Known about the structure:
With 212 residues, the chain is α+β, with helices and mostly antiparallel strands. The protein contains 5 helices and 5 strands. A 5-stranded antiparallel beta sheet has the order 1-2-3-4-5. A hairpin with a 5-residue loop joins strand 2 (146-152) and strand 3 (158-167). The longest helix is centred in the middle third of the chain and has 51 residues, at 72-122. The protein is elongated and about 50 Å long.
Amino acid sequence: xxxxxxxxxxxxxxxxxxxxxxxxxxxxxxxxxxxxxxxxxxxxxxxxxxxxxxxxxxxxxxxxxxxxxxxxxxxxxxxxxxxxxxxxxxxxxxxxxxxxxxxxxxxxxxxxxxxxxxxxxxxxxxxxxxxxxxxxxxxxxxxxxxxxxxxxxxxxxxxxxxxxxxxxxxxxxxxxxxxxxxxxxxxxxxxxxxxxxxxxxxxxxxxxxxxx
Length: 212
């Protein structure tokens, strides 16, 4: 049983397996139960050294000296919260006119892609890193691209940037291009999430509620 838990912890920590809530509950149910007065259950994932366990060479594709300490269940909840904030701030940025026209496409096409890449980015964060993560609260107005940023409150450095750009391809009308930037490549690349067409008429500026 001990070896089985070691393998599970290694796989979870290395990011090769993303556990569902039911899976986490099943593993917790198999663990020895603590009696009243004892310390609460610790996270399923621990920072360990590869030389501490002989099974590491069997379950990991490459050698590494250290593994991050990360609570998978907590990270899942935090990512869910960030996605909800992204939806809320997007609609605040769009204003009522744009929201009414593109909301369906936005939630069906853009949000699933955002959810996926956000989790891929934040899986590199340890529990200590998560304690420093903050979410911007005000999207840019006018013609600015910013919808939402995740940043390190201690250093001020951005972790993840969710943006939208207004494009006007020749003879195709206006489109809203949704994309993101990540600290994993020092925010150098422009990563596409998808585009939503608007039409030939110029769309309202961001945060304009009543202008048609």
